Amino acid sequence: MPRRGLVAGPDLEYFQRRYFTPAEVGVLESIWEILHRYLPYNAHAASYTWKYEGKNLNMDFTLEENGIRDEEEEFDYLNMDGTLHTPAILLYFNDDLTEL
């Protein structure tokens, strides 16, 4: 009897999520510059809409200019572990397969 609903998962050797740590993202880099560093992991990175807290990011602005603050000092002041909260930029696929 065939099994229903079961499909093979992704080959994790080739399919991996990529996270940039705060140390890897320069304060003065625009979102476009970050996107260009992401290209080796996904050649279609320009096919995504980049959003933070539901708002489209301006690709010419830095993280801080887009309202994404480095809150490390605030966490230190409050004696909180800064790793408990990591701001996340969400990428929404546009289905156009743009390559840079």
TrEMBL record:
This protein's UniProt keywords: Heme, Iron, Metal-binding
Gene Ontology MF term list: metal ion binding
Record carries keyword ATP-binding: no
InterPro entries listed in its UniProt record: Cytochrome_b5_domain
GO biological-process terms attached to the record: cilium movement
PANTHER family referenced in this protein's UniProt entry, alphabetically: CYTOCHROME B5 DOMAIN-CONTAINING PROTEIN 1
Family statement drawn from the similarity comment of this UniProt entry: Belongs to the cytochrome b5 family.
Official protein name in the record: Cytochrome b5 heme-binding domain-containing protein
Originating organism: Colobus angolensis palliatus
